[in-house]
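Q: Convert this sequence to structure tokens.
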Amino acid sequence: MSSAVLEQFQRTGHDLFIAGLVSSHGGNMSVRQGDRILITRRGSMLAHLEERDIVDIGLEENDANVALASTEIVVHRAIYKATSALAIVHTHPPYAIAQSLVKDEIVPVDSEGSYLLHKVPVVEAQLTAGSAEVAELLPRRLKEYDLVMLRGHGPFAIGHLLEEAYQLTSVLEMTCRILTIGEGLGGQVKEYRKGSDQYGSW
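A:
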């Protein structure tokens, strides 16, 4: 693993924690390099990643490092096999999780969220962490969207770089904070966006 790739993991992991998108030992990230995956170690602290916290494992089959890899490795593999993603970020942002508990899709009302996300589908699984059910559900939706919300657990975002996936995750949480605050005000949202009726169907 190059020092540049390690730096990407470290910078993104630090920013995810500082932004409140993961708890001390929560969340995971990965990067695809050909038929190999670099993924954060099981139980690692994303804010303090060291080289030993990034596990190199095969895309197609297990090797000696599989026991060290994040519990979400089966989901990351399935996403890479089904999409053109080269990076995945999975987090546990509180406002987004709260919104997923009451909605089947998250439709932003703020300008940035509307532009970047349009709509975020919410999918549901009985076993949320690293299950075969999630590995089957998520790739199907990530063929259509760059970010999908797993109800009660958190979003999976994809991109060509970790920074791209991080940006989508950050925007989702800000959008959900705005939605939650706006809904708490109790009034009718005043529409200001041209073509806003199309956002929910994108």
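The longest strand covers residues 28-33.
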